[in-house]
Design goal:
single chain; alpha+beta; Rossmann fold; D-amino Acid Aminotransferase, Chain A, domain 1; four-stranded antiparallel beta sheet; 13 strands; about 20% strand
Length: about 325
């Protein structure tokens, strides 16, 4: 029986950005839900001093760890260390297990596995090349490990005819990037929540690029997520009104999201991001294991649209861990 829950979050840097600070808001909301559910709880920060983190966890002796770690030492490629440490300690924890966390945090591994299972995803080139870019096509460059749209802005989108782009990307990111074909069309976020009845797809959310100029890339970049005074933040809107979306497309988005859940051994909660091309074919852009669960973020917005309270969502995430 679970009585004591430890929230594990990444240690905040001395000069944190907005996306880094958001984990503190998530922790506060989860703590309020745990209190409502009658659990005893505490909070622990994790960094690269794994021995100290292990000692602190053992001192509290939790029945369950609520894993909210998003980076380690501000590095997205180390996010898997949290489930790895907890696995080694034989302590149950919420959210995605180690294998799924590692695979989905590396965007190239994600795309390779999607392709292997026949799940549509935009074509790509990894940083080692060769870069056989098609001059008339449009591409987008993305960091290999980061989430929350870190490092993505309008300059990330370019034509294949831009011959100098690869050198600039290597100067910026070294080998930690990839180039993906840019899918012109609609964008959807599909949230999946675990629970007693198995994974359930929440209401579909479309990202609406309101009043974007014709020459401005329709992307959810860093500014759209975190810079509240920006045009992108004010005009990149989330809509659950999908009355103009065909039943066939809705069903395919549902099926593909559940396929991702199964392929990557996801657990607890996840969000799959899609672009839908002009032929109405959805392509998986990214699989977000343990997505942000702040009340104003996309995952909980979908759950709320389904009629779930935040506490009910936390309860289902915990159930999916211990069932």
């Amino acid at each position: 029986m679970i009585k004591k829950v430890l929230l594990l979050i990444n240690r905040i840097s001395d000069n944190p950005t907005e996306d880094e600070m958001d984990v503190l808001s998530q922790a506060s909301e989860v703590e309020a839900a745990l209190s409502e559910l009658g659990y005893e709880y505490s909070r622990e920060f994790m960094d690269l001093n794994l021995g100290q983190t292990k000692e602190n966890i053992l001192r509290y002796a939790p029945d369950l760890v609520f894993n909210l770690v998003e980076t380690i030492d501000q590095r997205g490629d180390l996010i898997y260390l949290a489930p790895a440490l907890l696995d080694s300690m034989h302590i149950p924890y919420t959210g995605c297990p180690l294998d799924g966390m590692f695979l989905t945090s590396n965007k190239i591994l994600t795309k390779q596995l999607l392709s292997h299972h026949g799940v549509r995803t935009p074509s790509w080139f990894d940083s080692s090349g060769p870069f056989d870019l098609n001059p008339p096509k449009t591409y987008i460059a993305k960091p290999l490990w980061e989430d929350a749209s870190v490092g993505i802005n309008d300059s990330s989108v370019f034509k294949g005819s831009n011959a100098g782009i690869v050198d600039k990307l290597r100067e910026r990111w070294g080998k930690g990037f990839f180039i993906e074909e840019f899918i012109e069309g609609r964008e959807f976020n599909v949230s999946v929540l675990g629970g007693e009845s198995g994974p359930q797809v929440m209401p579909l959310a479309e990202i609406v690029f309101h009043e974007f100029p014709a020459n401005k890339p329709r992307i959810v970049g860093y500014a759209a997520k975190w810079e509240q005074d920006s045009f992108e933040y004010r005009n990149t809107l989330r809509s659950f009104d999908i009355s103009g979306t065909t039943t066939v497309l809705q069903e395919e988005l549902h099926e593909m999201a559940l396929s991702c859940w199964k392929i990557f051994n996801l657990r607890g909660y996840a969000r799959v991001d899609f672009r839908v091309d002009h032929k109405n074919k959805p392509h998986v852009l990214e699989i977000n294991a343990n997505p942000c669960i702040s009340p104003d973020a996309g995952f909980y917005a979908a759950c709320s649209n389904a009629g779930l309270t935040f506490t009910q969502v936390v309860e289902r995430i915990i159930y999916d861990t211990v069932s």
